[in-house]
């Protein structure tokens, strides 16, 4: 059984699409070498069949039983070698296809994780999705066909040598005809490459549009915008269709060339061979061998054109991967990071301070101001000046900051798979998030397989499960942005009652204007319209001493 090793891929070469494909090839050199070896043996064993067949016919005409037996044995042996090498070539080719495709996905996912919050700002969703779907196949095919391509080149060379030994004119036909055929095919590759690039770009944009429509379908239905977005999607899909038709025109010419040019080549070799046989320059067995050679050459010649086509597709796909790899994250770790120590967390831009081990709430006149503070104290924005124990967060190692400070907001997603993998197996966090009833209603409890993005659950259920997932991480600092905005009042009251106990001794920051949560906070920071902290205190104190705060949390006019 051929194993499919996928080690850590290292740093990919993103200087060009061709260099990226070569980088992948170097990482699976053994698979490619195995495919080439068996591809050459597979094609070469087929190329020698006409020679053995010609020897057998000449032996039959000369009534030479010994040569005839040797010819038959040679044909049988070549058939066995062809069968075995064909199976092994195919296995190595499929392994190359899967390894290169999954390695590309591995590289893309790892880089997307490294980009973090930079990814949605710089790269469209459709581009990332297309890498794991369309580009996966094209890059895999570009490496898959190397086995047959190597065999085709060797087979053409061997057949040319054999023809030259018997008839120099017939050998020269092959020597001259093959480069001409390749040159003609090459004329079609440049427009094909350009048109495929355009189609790939449009397809990525269309995929992103579809993802946006699916994600916001409920909102579109609520505002009656389905028809508008459907018209936009229809118009963009027509652009992709037109681009696809333009690609198909060149592809049809390429496919026709794959049939016409080798066919003309075979007819020419057969015609010349027949004339030489009539004139007595070659024997009947050599004539049959020449015809068999000509018929056989159709396969390697078509492989050459197929290789050019798939390599073009692979280069277009690799270019999209390279474009993603060239995107640099907005935030990186410093060369000499400072030592991380637990302590108070403060944001100088707003004047907000989260005391160590204290449950702190942020209530803002403008909810986006509270979300901006959450981004800064979690180092999700490059402009952050937030400090942990007087040390600026940008001076700390980024991975340590991510382990120490966790932000959970309503843009987070549930992933497909067992629910236990999402929220852990502890009942304490499920109880704190008031999510135990969700688990009890599932057929297999925590072992139930949930759908992509948790679409099996309502908005409120998803929010509670996301909260349970955040609590299960138990980070030293947890920042929650509107964690109860989609749940009913009774459920919100239970969460507000249980959340402080679940986070006892840990620093917790909650961005909310819910009176239930604010009343449970140890301290509340009220952020005014200017984005800065205007007052601090307990919820009940601020209701009395700060009219603007009272108006914000009670939804009354100031």
From TrEMBL:
Its main location: membrane. The chain crosses the membrane at residues 29-48, 68-88, 145-164, 170-189, 259-278. It is found in: Cell membrane. The keyword Transmembrane helix applies. The keyword Transmembrane helix applies. GO terms for molecular function: ATP binding. It is a multi-pass membrane protein. InterPro entries: ABC1_TM_dom, ABC1_TM_sf, ABC_transporter-like_ATP-bd, ABC_transporter-like_CS, P-loop_NTPase, Type_1_exporter. Pfam families: ABC_membrane, ABC_tran. Keywords: ATP-binding, Membrane, Nucleotide-binding, Transmembrane, Transmembrane helix. Residues 399-485 form the ABC transporter domain. Residues 37-301 form the ABC transmembrane type-1 domain. This is ABC transporter ATP-binding protein/permease. It comes from Dactylosporangium fulvum.
